[in-house]
């Protein structure tokens, strides 16, 4: 009953307080809840109105550098070393770079080599790690900070410890509540204890007279003695869900790897040992019906068996002696098999006859079959001597990897002697959309199983008519069935012992697929482990990071059934020819096992007495760096005589065919069905395909296709996409100036290349996603180069800025869609973020001028602004249009309406009429810059331009310059071009750019930073760093994007949220580069846009939430305190005594004086406070508006606003730059209006009904630590 009465009493108090609050608010407020107008005589300017900030740069210039003493001087301005340029060495996995040797490389290969070898170029903000965005205060960091805090010990705790010894401290019988500790007569015991206590020492100073100042000083010293440095470490960490400013640096691009498996081949033993046997390993995915790895060749023969082939072999390279391999699997599946194939030396007889001894004879019957074994050894020795260079299929088997992974931990399996290994490599592999697996893949992983040693005993003999991969997939699918037909076959008895385990993170003695030594490689004489190249079952979206240029040749089948004569033991010889002379066969074919590292020719296995053989062979070739029109693959078909006969050659050529590798500048890959010539090809055959019926040549089966072969390239040089190939070819032709040039059936000249290049730019959106992502760095670099350095043909500039910008927008969209599953919480693509952060750099120098020709400079003006600048190759007429003259400005309804109006104007090119935008100076939505109208970096440009900033351009075609005129050079600035093209872009392109605005914002920011760093412009005053026209474009762009945020918040809230964050980060980055007063004016203009929309918004809480996030991101800047001008004379003079307690002792004197307006303005969100401390004023204003009783979306805005302030306080508390007490005092000045906010919200600061409500806890988390920080404040006015 009493409890119920207390609850009723508490409710009554709450109702009274709430009524008083509403009465007070009703007197101070007017208008709807959607547009708060809280004001008073002390505030002057309503909180809903953003006050115009001070001119930041002028304020700093008006104060001498040494105006502030000691550590306060660092708060006055950004550090001189704030921005720096870093060259981060590119990580190279191998001890050798693996790039082609210096020589005559074409433009495409040269560009690829430069991209894969140059170091990362990073524009680094030295103190960015101290910002709230990159140094978050999380629960984990809070715990780390709490470890250094002194443990608080109270008198009650120490008294209990003194009574109980250490041996009794943990005994529950000696606890305070134990009955044994309580004597029978507590009163008598207390008296006894008191009499035995030692007397306290006297306090002689107790009656002495002490000045209040001395008391305050001693009290302050006592308070500071054990004061923790990081008070906020004792509080809960800020809410992670509200940390919209959180950022993370992207990981550098690295080579893609899937889950890696180490397979060691330990031994291979048969019942009889009469000849060498060679093994092949590869992975196959039955579900996808695809071979997912290249072949690994191993040789486990004894030295005596290897000696049988001594006549045909050279000294084996150590790379061909590998017996272990590392396979990579991007898409783990229960349908993956490790297929093991065995081959033997070719001998007379079909496969069944050759396998018979292995199936019949047993090792225990060696003595009984001694004569037969001797006869078999003698025959094998003869065949090895005569036919040792040829192989024939022998047997095969398969291991179901899912069974190994799932049962590797069972005790009946042999475990590896090294024990369990942690697959640390799985933590470092790059994840992307390739990690998306279906339900069947979710139960299969190759990353966490225990090593297992297997002994494979059953092999199946190969069947001559079923050697293709299609037949193999049928066998593998049948192996999973309980009633497998393969189990009815007689096996070839053997024992192959292999070890399967997760690959270690950094294996020693490892060779890359190009046979390069992977770090660490301690001893080059050690037996290597080979990395096996993966052929992923599905697309893998990852960029190329290293030079790789491999070609795989897969002969499938040959049909010589119509060929007359003794043509039965057929083999195919493969050669890579650099010309038509036999001596021009290049040693680029990788060796298999126990042979030389590279060979000039290779042969397929022979199927005995078969005119239509099938092949499973894989030839791996290292493509030369420069593939020319003369390079081709030559296939020569031989009949091999297994039985020696007098006058009969060992091998007889019976056919020829070839594949030209380069056609119209593209590498030819894919399946081919080729006709075979009976006669040797005539001279100059390599420039034609065998499909051309050359006169006087005889063809097998009437020139029909009888040989099926497939070429597959794994190359980081050749894109193998027609749209990408054409684009790269045209760009390189323009760079080299190699005209005329043949592109397919068209001969390109200087008069036609522009049209082809524009069409190629438009066709980039049709490129296949996988090669586009793989070559995304190349494509973006070329597009940037086209924007910054437009090609010059015939002495004239080809302006491709618009087309390149549109192509860039579509390429970014395609890459985003391809890597949708890999995007972070902000919707950023890690690949594109890494490109901007690490790989992007401004294009290098232009190609050198012709010898003896003087350079002719073209004014490096932005597109459509340079006077007299040709706009395209066809320049006939010039037309001048006005730009941002205020008298010509119009008020469009929207950005789309404005662009449509410009497009509809007769004779006006949209890309050159950006100045009619509503956001241009003089427009209806113009943002006035604080800088002078034309404070460009070059004073001459300001003089040349008139006040109306009229831009002109040339349209059509002009007369060609004289033939003797040298090549022109053009240099533009990427950030200027991006801003311009974005502002004037059409609806479709603008939509694509808005979807991924963050990328273009970051690209502009890095371009601006490189412009300052490389041009030695950091010492230039900020108002002179960038020309006025560029700042006007930035203003127009910010206004346009801000309008998109406002208009889309109710249509596409997710996009609006991303745009809002991207815009805020962009402005935050610009604060480190450009005029900060100009950026503050852009922020104010954005606030005004939002405020205007709030008047008619159906749900203002959404816009208020976005504005709060916008403010929090801006305030997360690492120099947030400096940006608030903490060292300006708005603050009152300091008191002689920095004590807080002295304020109390002098309260009567202070109260008797009239309050100074400058003093009172410090404690409220007054106009002067918000004008000087602009960002702090915005943040605290948001907090004040959110705390209003009738605020829209109160609960959500409460949490966001209070969390933002709490996060900043935590950041200041942990920032080592603010460790000094004087610096802390200046930081605390920025939050003095919290006192008045606390006074106004005092009725709600404690809820008697719910003392631990979320609102009160949030508010306390801000106010209480702030009160503690006031201990550092040196002013008596508190």
From TrEMBL:
Region (Disordered): 20-44, 141-189, 210-231, 407-444, 936-961, 1136-1156
PROSITE patterns recorded: C2_DOCK (PS51650)
Biased composition (Polar residues): 175-189, 435-444
Compositionally biased tracts (Basic and acidic residues): 20-31, 160-174, 210-223, 411-427
A GO term for molecular function: guanyl-nucleotide exchange factor activity
InterPro entries, sorted: C2_Dock-C, C2_DOCK-type_domain, C2_domain_sf, DOCK, DOCK_C/D_N
Gene Ontology biological-process entries: small GTPase-mediated signal transduction
Compositionally biased region (Low complexity): 32-42, 1137-1155
Span of domain C2 DOCK-type: 548-714
Any Gene Ontology CC annotation: cytosol
Entry similarity comment: Belongs to the DOCK family.
Protein name, entry field: Dedicator of cytokinesis protein 6 isoform X5
């Amino acid at each position: 009953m009493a409890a119920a009465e207390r609850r009723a009493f508490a409710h009554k108090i709450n109702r009274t307080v709430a009524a008083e609050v509403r009465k007070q608010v009703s007197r101070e407020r007017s208008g709807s809840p959607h547009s708060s107008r809280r004001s008073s005589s002390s505030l002057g300017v309503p909180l809903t109105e953003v006050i115009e900030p001070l001119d930041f740069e002028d304020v700093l210039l008006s104060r001498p550098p040494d105006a502030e003493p000691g550590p306060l001087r660092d708060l006055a301005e950004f550090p001189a070393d704030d921005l720096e340029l870093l060259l981060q060495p590119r990580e190279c996995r191998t001890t050798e770079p693996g790039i082609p040797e210096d020589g005559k490389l074409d433009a495409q290969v040269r560009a690829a080599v430069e991209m894969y070898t140059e170091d990362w170029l990073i524009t680094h903000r030295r103190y960015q790690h101290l910002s709230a965005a990159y140094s978050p205060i999380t629960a984990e960091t809070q715990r780390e900070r709490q470890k250094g805090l002194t443990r608080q010990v109270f008198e009650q705790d120490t008294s209990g410890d003194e009574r109980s010894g250490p041996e009794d401290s943990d005994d529950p019988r000696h606890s305070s509540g134990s009955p044994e500790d309580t004597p029978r007569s507590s009163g008598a015991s207390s008296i006894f204890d008191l009499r035995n206590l030692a007397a306290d020492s006297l306090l002689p100073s107790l009656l002495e007279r002490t000045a209040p100042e001395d008391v305050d000083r001693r009290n302050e010293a006592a308070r500071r003695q054990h004061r923790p440095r990081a008070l906020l470490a004792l509080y809960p960490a800020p809410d992670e869900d509200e940390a919209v400013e959180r950022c993370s640096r992207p990981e550098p691009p690295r080579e893609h790897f899937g889950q890696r498996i180490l397979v060691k081949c330990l031994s291979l033993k048969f019942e009889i040992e009469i000849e060498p046997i060679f093994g092949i390993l590869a992975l196959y995915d039955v579900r996808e019906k695809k071979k997912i790895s290249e072949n690994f060749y191993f040789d486990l023969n004894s030295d005596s068996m290897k000696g049988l082939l001594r006549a045909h072999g050279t000294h084996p390279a150590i790379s061909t002696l590998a017996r272990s391999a590392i396979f990579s699997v991007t898409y783990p599946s229960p349908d993956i098999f490790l297929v093991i194939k065995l081959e033997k030396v070719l001998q007379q007889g079909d496969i069944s006859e050759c396998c018979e001894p292995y199936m019949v004879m047993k090792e225990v019957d060696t003595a009984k079959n001694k004569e037969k074994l001797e006869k078999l050894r003698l025959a094998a020795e003869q065949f090895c001597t005569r036919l040792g260079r040829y192989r024939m299929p022998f047997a095969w088997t398969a291991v179901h990897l899912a069974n190994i992974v799932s049962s590797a931990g069972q005790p009946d399996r042999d475990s590896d002697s090294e024990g369990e290994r942690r697959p640390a490599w799985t933590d470092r592999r790059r994840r992307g959309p390739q990690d998306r697996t279906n339900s069947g893949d979710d139960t299969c992983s190759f990353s966490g199983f225990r090593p297992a040693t297997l002994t494979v005993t059953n092999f199946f003999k190969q069947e001559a008519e079923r050697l293709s991969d299609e037949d193999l997939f049928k066998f593998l699918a049948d192996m999973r069935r309980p009633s497998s037909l393969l189990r009815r076959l007689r096996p070839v008895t053997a024992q192959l012992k292999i070890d399967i385990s997760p690959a270690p993170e950094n294996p020693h003695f490892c060779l890359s697929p190009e046979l390069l030594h992977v770090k660490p490689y301690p001893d080059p004489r050690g037996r290597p482990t080979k990395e096996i190249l993966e052929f992923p079952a599905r697309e893998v979206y990852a960029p190329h990071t290293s030079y790789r240029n491999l070609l795989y040749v897969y002969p499938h089948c040959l049909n010589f059934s119509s060929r007359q004569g003794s043509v039965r033991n057929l083999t195919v010889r493969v050669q890579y020819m650099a010309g038509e002379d036999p001596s021009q066969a290049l040693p680029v074919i990788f060796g298999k096992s126990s042979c030389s590292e590279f060979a000039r020719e290779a042969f397929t296995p022979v199927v005995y007495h078969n005119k239509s053989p099938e092949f499973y062979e894989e030839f791996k070739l290292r493509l030369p760096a420069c593939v020319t029109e003369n390079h081709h693959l030559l296939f020569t078909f031989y009949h091999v005589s297994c039985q020696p006969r007098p006058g009969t050659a060992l091998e007889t050529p019976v056919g020829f065919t070839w594949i030209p590798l380069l056609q119209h500048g593209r590498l030819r890959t894919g399946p081919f069905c080729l006709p075979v010539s009976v006669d040797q090809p005539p001279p100059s055959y390599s420039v034609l395909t065998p499909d051309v019926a050359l006169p006087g040549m005889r063809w097998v089966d009437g020139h029909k296709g009888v040989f099926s072969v497939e070429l597959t390239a794994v190359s980081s040089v050749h894109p193998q996409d027609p749209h990408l190939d054409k684009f790269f070819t045209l760009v390189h032709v323009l760079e080299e100036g190699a005209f005329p040039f043949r592109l397919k059936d068209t001969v390109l000249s200087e008069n036609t290349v522009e049209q082809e290049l524009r069409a190629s730019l438009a066709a980039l959106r049709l490129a296949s996603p996988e090669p586009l992502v793989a070559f995304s760095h190349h494509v973006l670099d070329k597009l940037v180069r086209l924007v910054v350095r437009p090609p010059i043909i015939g002495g004239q500039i080809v302006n491709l800025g618009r087309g390149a910008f549109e192509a860039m927008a579509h390429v970014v969209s395609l890459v985003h869609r391809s890597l949708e599953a890999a995007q972070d919480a902000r919707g950023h693509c890690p690949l594109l973020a890494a490109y901007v952060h690490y790989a992007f750099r401004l294009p290098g120098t232009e190609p050198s001028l012709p010898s003896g020709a003087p350079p002719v400079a073209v004014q490096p003006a932005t597109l459509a602004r340079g006077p007299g600048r040709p706009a395209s190759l066809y320049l006939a007429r010039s037309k001048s249009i006005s730009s941002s003259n205020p008298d010509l400005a119009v008020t469009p309804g929207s950005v789309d309406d404005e662009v449509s109006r410009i497009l509809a104007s007769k004779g006006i090119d949209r890309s050159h009429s950006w100045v009619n935008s509503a956001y241009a100076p003089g427009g209806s939505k113009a943002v006035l810059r604080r800088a002078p109208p034309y404070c460009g970096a070059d004073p001459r440009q300001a003089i040349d331009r008139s006040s109306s900033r009229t831009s002109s351009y040339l349209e059509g075609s002009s007369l060609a310059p004289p033939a003797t005129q040298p090549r022109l050079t053009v240099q533009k600035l990427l950030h200027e071009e991006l801003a311009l093209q974005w502002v004037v872009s059409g609806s479709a392109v603008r939509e694509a750019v808005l979807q991924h605005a963050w990328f273009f914002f970051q690209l502009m920011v890095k371009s601006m930073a490189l412009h300052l760093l490389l041009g030695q412009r950091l010492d230039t005053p900020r108002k002179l760093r960038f020309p006025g026209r560029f700042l006007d474009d930035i203003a127009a762009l910010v206004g346009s994007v801000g309008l998109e945020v406002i208009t889309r918040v109710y249509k596409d809230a997710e996009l609006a949220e991303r745009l809002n964050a991207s815009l805020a980060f962009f402005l935050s980055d610009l604060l480190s580069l450009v005029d900060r007063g100009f950026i503050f004016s852009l922020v104010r203009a954005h606030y005004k846009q939002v405020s205007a929309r709030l008047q008619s918004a159906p749900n203002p809480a959404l816009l208020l939430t976005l504005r709060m996030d916008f403010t929090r991101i801006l305030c997360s800047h690492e120099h947030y305190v400096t940006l608030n001008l903490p060292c300006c004379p708005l603050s009152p003079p300091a008191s002689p005594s920095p004590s807080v307690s002295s304020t109390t002792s002098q309260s009567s004197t202070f109260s008797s004086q009239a309050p100074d307006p400058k003093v009172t303005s410090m404690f409220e969100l007054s106009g002067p406070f918000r004008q000087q401390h602009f960002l702090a004023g915005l943040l605290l204003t948001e907090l004040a508006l959110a705390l209003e009783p009738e605020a829209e979306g109160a609960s959500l805005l409460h949490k966001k606003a209070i969390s933002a302030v709490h996060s900043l306080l935590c950041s200041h508390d942990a920032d080592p730059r603010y460790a000094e007490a004087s610096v802390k005092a200046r930081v605390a000045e920025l939050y003095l209006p919290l006192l008045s906010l606390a006074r106004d919200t005092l009725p709600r600061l404690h809820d008697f009904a719910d003392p631990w409500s979320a609102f009160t806890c949030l508010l306390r988390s801000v106010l209480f630590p702030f009160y503690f920080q006031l201990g550092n404040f040196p002013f008596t006015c508190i």
